[in-house]
Amino acid sequence: MIATRTDLAMERMDADSSFPGADVRRWEEGDVQLSEVVIRTEEAAKNLGKPRGSYLTLECRLLREHDPDARLAMANLLGEELSRMVAPSDDAPVLVVGLGNRGVTPDALGPAAIDKTLVTRHMLGSEYAQSGMRSVCAIAPGVLGVTGIETVEMVESLTHKLHPKAVLCIDSLAARDSGRIGCTVQISNTGIQPGSGVGNHRRPLTKESLGVDVIAVGVPTVIYAATLARDAFALLSGEGGHEEALTSMERELLGTDLGNLIVTPRDIDAIVKNCATLIAGGINRALQPSLNASEIAAMMD
Questions:
Q1: What's residue 90's pLDDT?
Q2: CATH number where 146 lies
Q3: Residue 144 placed within a domain
Q4: Core-most of 31, 188, 195, 198, by most CB within 10 Å?
Q5: DSSP states of the chain as a string?
Q6: pTM to 2 decimal places
Q7: In angstroms, rounded to a whole number, what is the distance separating the alpha carbons of residues 174 and 197?
Q8: Measured distance CA(65)–CA(71) in Å, rounded
Q9: Tens of pLDDT along 119-128?
């Protein structure tokens, strides 16, 4: 069996929810479906192709219908979960890193979310600072092909200078199921490998490489064409009794130009814009619990 081409841990577990060395839990809160995958052993990590740790997924298909209530519910849940993962506030800032390329829409989620994140490090101690405001700084470091600098090199330098409490990374991901594009958020405590969603692996941003906790937040914005071709063949053939043929076909496709072709929805501009607003909203709620939504909005103007 070939590896499932997805960045979502829950999709890697879909085939066998009782995978040895890994646990999965699923539940619902309103219209949002949640699942948590905890990879406990190195063997499970190797077999699933994901580092050991916790992966929480929030999914709401109503997001693709631009439902404002669904986006608010997701942002609130995201904020709650992130607040549990980020250590309590002290004088150290939280560094938010928006990974990706502004010039490539499916990869622009990180920079777009940074634009909507409330940064406060420069305000603390001034007359504009609110009581209980947490120190937050942010950067969109760009990509190696544009800057000539590895993302991890830039973030390493900042962590050594700023000594943040945690680094919170935002990135675009790849999904196995096209229905999850733009309506699924994955949070993990294992760090992140920039470019993994498009097969362009760079040096990872992890606690081991940076020396501080690294929390990753991602939304799938792309899917591999070979996966779509496999699914189309399965639909036409009824899939029953054809798993071996499907696997063989996908393996053959991966060795061609089609294997590296990446597909994204035609409304990707709106998807990235909405998801950036969602993620930034969750981050602002998590990092600034003493501020209400109107205060955050006013300070962003």
A1: 80
A2: 3.40.50.1450
A3: yes
A4: 188
A5: -PPP--S-HHHHHTT-TT-TTEEEEEEEETTEEEEEEEE-SHHHHHHHTS-SEEEEEEE-GGGGGT-HHHHHHHHHHHHHHHHHHSPPP-SSPEEEEE-S-TTSGGG-HHHHHHHTS---TTTTTSTTPPTTPPPEEEE----HHHHSS-HHHHHHHHHHHH--SEEEEEEEEEESSGGGTTTEEEEESS-B-TTGGGT-----B-HHHHSSEEEEEEEEEEEEHHHHHHHHHHHHHTSTT-HHHHHHHHHHHHTSGGGG-EE--TTHHHHHHHHHHHHHHHHHHHH-TTS-HHHHHHHH-
A6: 0.89
A7: 5
A8: 10
A9: 999 988 888 7
pLDDT at 212: 95
Phi/psi class of residue 67: alpha, beta or left (left: φ > 0; alpha: ψ in -120 to 50)?
beta
Cα–Cα nearest to 67, from 34, 36, 32? 32
Spatial contact of 205 and 196, defined as CB atoms under 8 Å apart? no
Look at residue 152 and tell me if it is in a domain: yes
Tokens of 51: 């580092």
What pLDDT score does 242 carry?
60
For β-strands 166-175 and 213-224, DSSP reports them as parallel
**CA-CA distance, 169 to 214, in Å (whole number)?**
7
Does residue 55 sit within a domain? yes
For residue 28, what are its two tokens?
């619902």
Domain that holds residue 184: 9-219+268-300
Residues 217-221, mean pLDDT to the nearest whole number: 97
Q: How confident is the model at residue 258 (pLDDT cuts 50, 70, 90)?
A: low
Nearest to 174 by CA among 25, 4, 45: 4
Asked whether the predicted pLDDT for residue 49 surpasses 90, the reply is no
Residue 131 within a domain:
yes
User: Which residue, chain included where needed, has tokens 């190797």?
Assistant: 46
Q: Are strands 166-175 and 94-98 parallel, antiparallel or unpaired?
A: parallel
Amino acid (1-letter code) at residue 62: L
If one counts the domains in the chain, the total is: 1
